[in-house]
Amino acid sequence: MRNRPQRHRARPVGLQLSAPDMIKIGELYRRAGVWNGQQIVPADWIEQSTSPSALNPDYGPFWWIIGEPDGPGDVALG
Questions:
Q1: Beta strand residue intervals within 1-78, DSSP E
Q2: Are 58 and 64 spatial neighbours (Cβ–Cβ below 8 Å)?
Q3: pTM metric for this prediction
Q4: Contact of 27 with 19, CB cutoff 8 Å
Q5: pLDDT in tens, the chain (78 residues)
Q6: Cβ of 17: how many Cβ atoms within 10 Å?
Q7: Are the C-beta atoms of 48 and 56 separated by less than 8 Å?
Q8: Which one of 13, 29, 30, 66 has the minimum C-beta count within 10 Å?
Q9: What integer pLDDT is reported at residue 27 of this predicted model?
Q10: DSSP 8-state code for residue 3
Q11: Among candidates 33, 71, 32, 31, which has minimal Cα distance to 52?
Q12: Burial per residue of 46-59, b for 16 or more beta-carbon CB atoms within 10 angstroms, e otherwise
């Protein structure tokens, strides 16, 4: 790492999820933030987080957007 002040240490980020938990997140996004009939994540956040950002058209906040001939696909890599 480059020289940084002590208060700005780089830390790893990410999630450690089981396959069933990954499926739950995918279902939550597929259902526009609704889980068991209850809106737990705002639908507009789901739309925004899976839409291309102004800085990188291949990336929305937290998701890589993979273009397909029939429309975009979203992926979380790790």
A1: 34-35, 38-39, 59-60, 63-68, 71-75
A2: yes
A3: 0.62
A4: no
A5: 455 555 555 555 667 788 899 899 889 989 999 999 999 999 999 888 888 888 888 887 777 777 654 555 655 554
A6: 13
A7: no
A8: 13
A9: 93
A10: -
A11: 71
A12: beeebeeeeeeeee
Instruction: Give bridge partners of residue 66 from the DSSP assignment.
Output: 73
State the DSSP code for 39: E
Q: Are 24 and 40 in contact (CB under 8 A)?
A: no
Question: 30, exposed or middle or buried, with CB in 10 Å at 0-12, 13-18, 19+?
Answer: exposed
For 4, which DSSP code?
-
Per-residue pLDDT at 28:
93
Residue with tokens 């780089």: 10
Strands 59-60 and 63-68, sheet pairing: antiparallel
37: its two tokens: 């009939």
pLDDT of residue 58: 80
